[in-house]
Amino acid sequence: MAILQIQVVEGEGAVHPPGSRSSRPLAVEITDETGKPVAGAAVSFHLPGDGPGGTFLNGLRTDVATTDSRGRASLHGLQVNRIPGKFQIRIVVSKEQARAGAVSSQYVAELKGGTAAPSTGRAVHRRGIWIAAAVLAGGGAVAAILATGKSGNAAPAPAAPPAPVLTIGAPAISVVKP
């Protein structure tokens, strides 16, 4: 059984504007253990199910390409969502009985003006942040009320100061030789 190797040759570390469609492909080169290009290998690309990420041209978070005679495969038209941050595209290649995997780091840039992108389905997470903020601000009773959703017979709790504002900074990109 051959050993396959994956090298991302274009698109690694790309920073995408929120909500944009990428104009550059994500391209990989597949070689065997001797460095010879592997033609006809199936290469699947997988985006994360939540958080920063997006969809491929097919509208899905998974797409497949086949390597050419130079062992290269690429995908075009990644449509990123509006959630800023780092995400990874999982890359899996298979040819006959041989398989290999790798990841490509990508980034969705922060929206202009430093504002956070709207969240998708994160109400429970936000509630947890408010509970934590209330506890940190010394409003244990407020946290208990928020956690249970009931006030019971407890006396009114003092108002907690406003929660601190959290912002996500610009992504950092590290280039390291393998």
What does this molecule look like?
There is one protein chain. The chain is an alpha+beta fold and 178 residues long. The protein folds into two domains: 5-112, Immunoglobulin-like; 121-148. The chain contains two helices and ten strands, in the order ββββββββββαα. It has helices at residues 123-136, 140-148, and strands at residues 5-10, 15-16, 26-31, 42-46, 54-55, 62-66, 72-75, 79-80, 85-95, 98-108. The strands form three sheets. It has a five-stranded mixed sheet with strand order 2-10-9-4-6, with no helix packed on it. Strands 1-3-7 form a three-stranded antiparallel sheet, with no helix packed on it. Strands 5-8 form a two-stranded antiparallel sheet. Helix 1 (123-136) runs antiparallel to helix 2. Mean pLDDT is 76; it is low at 116-157.
Rg computed from alpha carbons, rounded to a whole number of angstroms: 23 Å
Second rung of CATH, namely the architecture of the largest domain: Sandwich
In total, the number of strands is: 10
Strand portion, in percent?
25-35%
Classified by CATH, the class of the largest domain is Mainly Beta
Instruction: Enumerate the spans where pLDDT stays under 50 for 5 or more consecutive residues.
Output: 116-157
**Main sheet, how many strands, which sense, barrel?**
5 strands, mixed
Cα separation of the termini: 24 Å
* Structural class estimated from helices and strands: alpha+beta
Domain module count: 2
- The helix content, as a percent range, equals 10-25%
Overall, the morphology is elongated
The CATH superfamily name of the largest domain is Macroglobulin (MG2) domain
**What's the average pLDDT?**
76
Q: H/E series, N to C?
A: EEEEEEEEEEHH
CATH topology of the largest domain: Immunoglobulin-like
For the largest beta sheet, what order do the strands appear in spatially? 2-10-9-4-6
Number of helices: 2
